[in-house]
Amino acid sequence: MAQAPALLYVQMNLPADEQLFNAWYEDHMAVRRTMPGFLNAQRYRNVDPDGPRHLAWYDLDDVAALQSPEYLALRAREAQTPRDQQVHAVIPFSERRLYRCIDTDEPWAAARGTDPAPFVMSVALEPPPDQIEDFHAWYREEHSPMLMEAKGWRRIRRYEQVEGNGPRFMALHELDSLDGFETREYEAALATPWRLRVTGAVLRRERLRWELIRGS
Fold first, then answer.
1. What is the reported pTM?
2. Which one of 154, 182, 201, 216 is CB 3.0 to 4.6 Å from 174, fit for a cystine?
3. 6-99: which CATH architecture?
């Protein structure tokens, strides 16, 4: 899977009628896949007890993909479609974020394989304004290289939020399995003085782990 300059990231909690939601979202995702600037689409479920239950993400060739005439026309049609209105009315929680990709030339951001990752971990953090440079240096020089030594780590992509209400920066960790969380390499990456200093100062944080439902 090639590096993409932008990402649309949507978290949801599911309505009581999950069958209705899943059938609707398959169509919802498929039509977006045909929009200009939409490169692929993934759906994931939360594997942990806390946090939003459903994740959809769309790699984009530019943040401007959400402003194309075709996409805006699609959104306008959907707003008037009874099926879309019905499903949106029963979704208890939905949050939409738009990101631009950063650190695109780092070795740990390179694709490993072409298929969607079976698991991902999204880690969103917001450092204090006066510590952003140190935050980026820690991720680039220590944290990401150390995590890539853990079992199952396939790729780490980093983002800065353009629209949305999440923490300012997010790392999307693509994983072959969840086994790496039990390894010495993972524990070592969490225990360095630099990591403890950086994460101890963040203003907001969010960590979620997801299992693939469908990718294209």
1. 0.93
2. 154
3. 2-Layer Sandwich (3.30)
